[in-house]
Amino acid sequence: MEFRLPERIEISNKSTYGRVLNIAGSDYMPGAAYLSSVSALKVGCGYCFLATSKKVISTVAAKSSNIVFVDPKNIIKAMQTADVIEIGCGLSTNYSGKKVFNKFIKYAPSQTPIIVDADGLNLISEKNAEFIKRKFQKVIFTPHPLEAARLLNTDSVLDNIAGAAKLISEKYNCITVLKTHNTFIYSPDGRSYTNTTGNSSMAKAGSGDVLTGMIAGLVAQGMGLFEAAALAVHLHGLCGDIAKEKLTEYSVMAEDLISSIHLAINSYLK
Predict the structure, then answer these.
(1) CATH classification number, 17-269, choose in 3.90.1530.10, 3.20.20.140, 3.40.1190.20, 3.30.2310.20
(2) I need a surface site. Which of 39, 42, 132, 187 has the fewest CB within 10 A?
(3) In contact, 108 and 75? CB cutoff 8 Å
(4) What's the rounded Cα separation, in Å, for the pair 229 and 88?
């Protein structure tokens, strides 16, 4: 891995390192909102604003005092001031999830970097014409194989992961982070990266939410989208390798990946 972590500046403040707006979580999946918010902060962004339901706010606030909360009624205003938007982790595809996502599709600034995961991708697969019509300029998709298949309206992508990532990037004008045992990243300009860090301990619910937050946190600090995606995937895998040594491949949970971010960064800096 050849990409450098964003520089930390001696004379700086929280605004120096960017504002992430995370549109995530639902009443039955509050953990995804927590994981994708805290991981953005742990890789160095200055703020993480979480737009979610009141029930999720109560749950997440009880676990962390580091996140700023946004009432869903104020999402439009929050999108105008964000340096990067991440959307989809635990959002759900029910009425409330769709209502929030429709606001995103209609009002998100086309030049603001966006990272879309999980239910955000599932909703795009239902409304791909509307998404494509907006012509967002700086987009990262982070699908697992089933989500990738939905985006391409096909049964499976497992027989050609690289080809599927390329097709998604071309169809949606996005950088595609296709998550498998060796995550493959493809950019519309032809750049690609195959990751080799990580292990089977990371095959747990919430692991992808952590990755989405890590990508958003690096983009917020000014990294290019492809570079941020590749470095976040590499560090995410390192977190899994570090956690496995302590906890075995059986017992690592998504929160253990977050607890290992500082160790992965320290290892990478060395």
Answers:
(1) 3.40.1190.20
(2) 132
(3) no
(4) 17
Is residue 201 within 8 Å of residue 189, measured between CB atoms?
no
Task: Find how far residue 73's CA is from the centre of its chain.
Answer: 23
Contacts of 172 (CB under 8 A, 6+ apart): 124, 128, 131, 132, 139, 141, 151
Q: What is the pLDDT of residues 50-70, one digit of tens each?
A: 999 999 999 999 999 999 999
- Between the alpha carbon of residue 163 and those of residues 54, 142, 258, the distances in Å are 41, 15, 31
Q: State the 10-residue block means of pLDDT for the chain, 270 residues long.
A: 90 96 96 98 98 97 97 95 98 94 96 98 93 96 98 96 97 97 97 97 98 98 98 98 98 98 96
CB-CB contact of 23 with 91 (8 Å): yes
Q: What is the pLDDT of residue 217?
A: 98
DSSP 95-154: HHHHHHHHHHHHHS-TTS-EEE-THHHHHHHHSHHHHHHH--SSEEE---HHHHHHHHTS
Say what the pLDDT of residue 133 is.
Answer: 95
User: Residue 153 CB: number of other CB atoms within 10 A?
Assistant: 9
Q: Where are the domains of the chain?
A: 17-269
Predicted structure pTM score? 0.98
Token pair recorded at residue 63: 């676990």
| Distance in angstroms (rounded) separating the CA atoms of residues 168 and 5 | 27
Contact of 45 with 74, CB cutoff 8 Å: no
pLDDT score at 2: 82
